[in-house]
């Protein structure tokens, strides 16, 4: 691994050693693409067969599989800024097999076998993304090392039993229990008391996947318009300030930004998630930490945090932050407040005390789409030709591929096993109006923070406050 870098030293010295050298500017992952020339701008009205709104993974995967299924289709993607501007260019890079919203809710409605099928599809989807990357020459720097979940206090250790019981019920997920020593042998996280590992996960470079995928769809004849903000979606058309695209099928892939579209304000809550990334660690630090398998990493805190090791020897970690802003407002370009980046900095140094002096290279934030029931969905109405996919909360990197394949099947009229998965056609009620939405989110996150503090101070069982917050949030 490279030794610790000294780039940005002047900026950091001026701001103090703990201040990230860069804040916002979309994300660390998107920085290499800042100077890439923009795609064509929409200039006037046009006709197409399929108009897709949003050039994140959902929109791009949908375009990719549609073009594969029927190369004669005229497909356009309309992106308000640049490819990968949203969560797809900013995420934690966990290409993992999660069912958003969990197994049990789906099982109650659709039966156990349907959920087993869903889980198997998501496991296979991790490999499908890796296979397309190989086929299309997309270097997403993928390393499939599985995913490690670590318990760092007694209450967390006791929660492992709940996960083991869940794993016995849903063996397709592939989760196995690890002793403290086995967990530390993978990644030496301070205070580790036990762990869980599952194999269906790869770390990736998020923006390289998004940008590489956009190139792949362009090679298949799809036009990706950038700087084309859609102001309204209606049957047969997507309107922008610079022209209207008329199409038999109009598919919405706008995730956390959906709230800005007319009629969709309370559909998906735009929840923020924030990240920091360190400068590269020294070889000695890596010798202490291990992490040779490039597992994605999280702990069992109620306030969720997720991390990965990058191939150039950095640690990227995300989570804690200002989760939600009044009236679904959110920052643009990823600017992140001090409380958030300092909390993430403290956390990564708690996990790995040896890196206390390693500077933080960059911090940024992005927005997730959260449905009221916390379950993602793929929707398509064959009569109107309107469709949508999203609501992945923090688990869309893999699910967007399955959603894109499913939308492609639905639009082309193919009745396949994936068009019958439990998330297809699923609807949920709208979020509460303000000020309830803002208040509830603050109370819930305050409760999770309180519960984590109590457990780290010695509470040996899961805090009741966290259980109540789970019930209120519907998580
Ligand atoms: C910080 C962070 C960390 C995350 N970590 C992980 C992780 O490790 N693993 C995981 O599985 N998931 C993670 N997620 C979630 C994951 O990134 C998303 O679920 C996924 O990228 C969603 O892809 P998408 O294409 O649906 O949405 P987005 O990537 O948000 O794309 C939507 C696109 O639509 C465009 N758009 C919006 N409105 C309009 C409009 N009106 N007109 C035109 N274009 C419009 C936007 O500019 C954007 O480019 C994370 C998210 C964040 C923010």
Low-pLDDT stretches are 1-15
Biggest β-sheet: strands ordered side by side in the sheet? 1-17-13-16-15-14-5-7-6
Mean residue pLDDT = 91
Q: Output the CATH class name of the largest domain.
A: Alpha Beta
- Which ligands does the model contain, each kind named once? flavin-adenine dinucleotide
What is the CATH fold-level name of the largest domain? FAD/NAD(P)-binding domain
Q: What is the beta-strand fraction?
A: 15-25%
Number of helices: 12
Supply the CATH architecture of the largest domain: 3-Layer(bba) Sandwich
Structural class: alpha/beta
Name the quaternary structure.
Answer: single chain
Distance between the termini: 40 Å
Major sheet characteristics: 9 strands, mixed
Q: Quick one: CATH superfamily of the largest domain? A: FAD/NAD(P)-binding domain
Q: Helix content range of the residues, please?
A: 25-40%
The Cα radius of gyration reads 22 Å
Inertia-based shape? globular
User: Would you report the number of β strands?
Assistant: 19
| Number of domain modules | 3
Protein name: Glycine/D-amino acid oxidase-like deaminating enzyme
Pfam family, one: DAO
InterPro entries: FAD-dep_OxRdtase (IPR006076), FAD/NAD-bd_sf (IPR036188)
Domain FAD dependent oxidoreductase: 49-410
């Amino acid at each position: 691994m490279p030794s610790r870098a000294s780039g940005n030293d002047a900026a950091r010295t001026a701001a103090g050693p703990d201040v990230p050298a860069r804040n916002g500017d979309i994300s660390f992952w998107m920085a290499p693409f800042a100077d890439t020339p923009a795609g064509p701008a929409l200039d006037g009205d046009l006709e197409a067969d399929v108009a897709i709104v949003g050039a994140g993974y959902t929109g791009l995967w949908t375009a990719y599989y549609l073009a594969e299924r029927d190369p004669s289709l005229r497909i356009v993607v309309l992106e308000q800024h640049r490819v990968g501007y949203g969560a797809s260019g900013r995420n934690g890079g966990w290409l993992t097999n999660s069912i958003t919203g969990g197994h049990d809710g789906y099982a109650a409605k659709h039966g156990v076998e349907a959920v087993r099928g869903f889980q198997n599809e998501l496991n296979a989807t991790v490999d499908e993304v890796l296979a397309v990357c190989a086929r299309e020459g997309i270097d997403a720097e993928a390393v499939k090392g599985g995913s490690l979940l670590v318990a760092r206090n007694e209450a967390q250790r006791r929660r492992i039993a709940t996960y083991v019981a869940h794993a016995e019920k849903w063996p397709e997920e592939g989760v196995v229990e690890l002793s403290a020593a086995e967990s530390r042998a993978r990644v030496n996280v301070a205070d580790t008391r036990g762990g869980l590992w599952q194999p269906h996960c790869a770390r990736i470079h998020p923006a390289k996947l998004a940008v590489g995928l956009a190139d792949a769809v362009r090679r298949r004849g799809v036009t990706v318009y950038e700087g084309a903000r859609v102001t309204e979606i209606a049957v047969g058309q997507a309107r922008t300030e610079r022209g209207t695209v008329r199409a038999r099928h109009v598919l919405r892939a706008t995730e956390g930004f959906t709230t800005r579209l007319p009629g969709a304000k309370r559909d998906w809550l735009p929840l923020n998630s924030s990240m920091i990334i360190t400068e590269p660690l020294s070889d000695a630090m890596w010798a202490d930490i291990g992490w040779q398998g490039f597992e994605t990493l999280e702990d069992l805190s109620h306030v969720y945090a997720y991390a990965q090791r990058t191939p150039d020897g950095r640690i990227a970690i995300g989570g804690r932050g200002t989760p939600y802003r009044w009236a679904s407002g959110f920052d643009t370009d990823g600017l992140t407040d001090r409380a958030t980046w300092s909390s993430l900095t403290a956390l990564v140094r708690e996990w790995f005390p040896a890196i206390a002096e390693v500077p933080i290279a960059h911090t940024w934030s992005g927005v997730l789409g959260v449905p009221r029931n916390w379950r993602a969905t793929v929707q398509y109405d064959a009569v109107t030709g309107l469709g949508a996919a999203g609501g992945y909360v923090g688990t869309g990197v893999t699910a967007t591929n399955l959603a894109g394949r499913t939308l492609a099947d639905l639009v082309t009229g193919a009745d396949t096993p994936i068009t019958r998965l439990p998330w297809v056609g699923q609807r949920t009620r709208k979020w509460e109006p303000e000020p309830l939405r803002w208040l509830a989110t603050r109370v819930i996150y305050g409760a999770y923070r309180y519960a984590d503090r109590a457990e780290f101070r010695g509470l040996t069982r899961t805090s009741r406050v966290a259980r109540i917050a789970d019930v209120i949030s519907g998580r």
